[in-house]
Amino acid sequence: MKKGISESKVQRMRNIVKGDYTKSVNTQVGYKKSDKKVEGDVWEEAGKTWTIKNGIKQNISKMQSVRDLIKMPLTCPECDKVMRGQFDRYHWKVDKKCLDCFTLEQKKSRADGTYEKIQKELFKKIKTSQIKDITDEFEEWLDGNQTFVTELGEVEDWSGGLNKAELKAKFKKELLDWKKHLSEM
Length: 185
Fold this sequence. Notes:
By secondary structure, this protein is mainly alpha-helical. Among the domains are: 61-113, no CATH class; 114-185. It contains six helices and five strands, in the order αβββααααββα. The chain has helices spanning 7-18, 64-70, 86-95, 99-112, 115-143, 164-184; strands spanning 42-45, 48-53, 56-60, 147-149, 155-157. A three-stranded antiparallel β-sheet has the order 1-2-3, with no helix packed on it. 4% of the residues are buried. The mean pLDDT is 86.
């Protein structure tokens, strides 16, 4: 009994080491390949997107773009310093730069006198987003059922004695006051 690695497997390993990933070691009869894929090709097959990287056929995930956004690089794209701390991780998520670059940017904006303006714009963005969230939550709450049944079987009305039109009018008045306050800033 002869044990060992077959000649075709040895040849295949030699081809991979040389970097010739597509070279065939076996001859197959009766089969014609429809189209030859090369490095970097992207194609759709059976509902999945495929590509060839380093000679290997790989599936392209639908979530790959999200992974690329979240994944922190080894070095900062602006200053090429190594990013390894928790503060670098935070600033990468928020600002797409390291803590040192963020600090330098803050220092420059304070020297230019634009820091207060930037902070006001950021505050306005945050408050506008909060107002939108509160409005959505209020609309959802208003459309929901405001009566509840207690353990004793009694039906309680939690509307506060106001009907939906009155609640909406009161909320819109408060909302307009907030928007006016933000526009005056």
